[in-house]
Amino acid sequence: MDSKVCRDCGHARPLTDFTKNSNSRDGYAFYCRDHARRRHRASRDRRTGGPRARFARDTVVPVGSKWCPDCGTVKELSAFGRNAGNKSGINSYCKPCHNARGRTSKEAVGGERTYHLRRRYGITAAQADAMLADQGGLCGLCRAAPAAHVDHDHATGAVRDLLCFNCNGGLGQFKDDPALLRAAARYLEAHRAGQLAGPVPGQRR
After folding, report:
1. How far from chain centre, in Å, is Cα 63?
2. Which InterPro entries match (predicted)?
3. Domain locations in the chain as residue ranges
4. Topology (CATH) of 109-173
């Protein structure tokens, strides 16, 4: 076999027009390279909210300026945010376009709250609300104060319960170490027992 029919255009094309695909029976992609690129661009546009502008070769970008691929505009560097992940240290997109991309990403997963919960803890807003309902709205540790924070295992990332501000912060101060927490409990109990037994020698009354 030296040719293959592209599923998009329906034309028989040489195998060199297809990339390799180990999941396909014949070992080649379902779409020719041209239509695979079109599909990739269409998928990206759906995720980002529209086609990106193309950089014209005759576009002049003065020193201290940068071209934004989303709005296709040359702007001063002050119009771009910082990004330590880029070699230049500057975002690829201007601030308005960067913010618009962020909103699109958050809306795609069900809103800003779900976006942050999923990014940090791997749960949705609906799952967090269900946990809160199961706990009766109260902290999963002290069972007294309102639950306001997602508690998770820093070693595994697994979500445990929803805790109040003090309990969540307290576990963090003790580094989520059960041995350290037990030692703290013994310390408090020993001193409380000593207080009940009588004043400490040398202590003023």
Report:
1. 34
2. Endonuclease_7 (IPR004211), Endonuclease_7_sf (IPR038563), His-Me_finger_sf (IPR044925)
3. 3-48, 65-107, 109-173
4. His-Me finger endonuclease fold (3.40.1800)
Residues 87-135 have pLDDT tens digits of: 889 999 999 999 988 887 777 767 888 888 988 899 988 999 999 999 9
Decide if 110 contacts 125 (C-beta within 8 A): yes
* Mean pLDDT of all residues in 157-171: 95
Query: Cα(29)–Cα(18) distance, rounded to whole angstroms?
Result: 6
Report which of 120, 113, 160, 155 is spatially closest to residue 140, judged by C-alpha positions.
160
Give the CA angle between residues 113, 115, 121 to the nearest 5°.
Answer: 95
Burial 18-46 (b: 16+ CB within 10 A, else e): beeeeeeeeebbbbbeebbeeeeeeeeee
Residue whose entry in the numeric block shows the structure tokens 């940068």: 66
Q: What is the pLDDT of residue 52?
A: 60
Q: Which residue type occupies 149?
A: H
Is the pLDDT score of 198 beyond 70?
Answer: no
Q: How far apart are CA 17 and CA 36, in angstroms?
A: 10
H/E element, 160: strand 159-163
Find out whether 115 and 108 touch, Cβ atoms under 8 Å.
no
pLDDT at 152: 93
